[in-house]
Amino acid sequence: MLEKHEKRDVLYKYRGKTCLNCELPLEKSDHFCPNCGQKNSTRKLNFSDFIVEFFSGLFSYDSRLQRTLRVLLFKPGQISKDYINGKRMRYANPFRFYLSASIIFFLIAGISESFEGVNLQEQDENFQNEVAKIQQDTLLQSELNEIPALKQNNIKLDSLIKSIPSKRKETEESYKDVYLSQTELDSTNYINRNATKFTIFYRYYKASNEISPEAAMTELQYEKTKWNYWLYEKSIKFNLIYNNPKIFADYFISKLPFIIFFYLPVFALFIWLLYLRRSFNYMEHLVFAFHVQTTLFVLYIIGYSIDYILNSDWGIALANTVFIFYLYKSMRNFYGQGRVKTVLKFVLLNIIFFTLAIIAAIIALIVSFSIF
């Protein structure tokens, strides 16, 4: 009987007695391993198998992605309810799907801002002016150096200018105005001590352009500690950010998907406290929070795309309006409470969200600057 079956179905001769992945004993009738899900086949990998497996996995993912997006957008709260009730294979993982949606959103937002001609012109205008000014100064200096009286006495214009007191330098704030010795700094508290040192370092760098922390500590007669070196380096970067704020803005925006990823678990904790009497545990609230935030990113992706294609500014406004209604419907469907309770908790939840967002933004800015 088995021989006849092998002649009709050649695949049976490649069925193994054990799973090649987890070594679980298998029967000839087992098409897949019941333990790990790997296909029961001892046949060597060939090109056709690779192509079939690649496209089957691709279409399977696309099918799950389409279903996730459809339910997420048009059935508020349903995908979270299905997921916590065990219907998980039909949907994309909420945490990975959040990261994918957030990264795509920030990429689209960055592209739409970068390709606006007016913005690029405004960003480059100051830089071009500075370059032109430097070129003019260099040309003027080279011409003035050819003045016979200066050339005869071997006097360079730049050395002559340096010997003349500059009114601009006199009006600039000097580090000497706030300078304190190491002993004086040690007598102050921790916050004032480091704030004063940062101000001194910042002003000293502006005056000297000294990039070596060790040389700066020697000149300022401060202790050569790792903390002082780090603080001096941050004062240099603060000067860079102060003159070029877009550099830090781009850096901070690139980290926002991961900042929000760690912010949402804190927000889910407050949702759990708000629905403490309900039968949901913390992880179920967290899944709901990630699905809602993912929806916001998807709506923003659509809104930004509309604004970019139509050169309008109503796409994001429409996305915000839709999201307000979407959040209310999600809370109503997922938690199953009445309209009055849902509206009250909706308002309270938004107050909590924006309060936590401000605190998280401040902390994120401090941390981002620390590692910048």
TrEMBL record:
Keywords: Membrane, Transmembrane, Transmembrane helix
Signal peptide, first to last residue: none
Transmembrane annotation, as ranges: 95-112, 256-275, 282-302, 308-328, 348-371
Pfam families, sorted: DUF3667 (PF12412)
Protein name: DUF3667 domain-containing protein
Top-rank lineage group of the source organism: Bacteria
Source organism (scientific name): Christiangramia forsetii
Coiled coil ranges: none
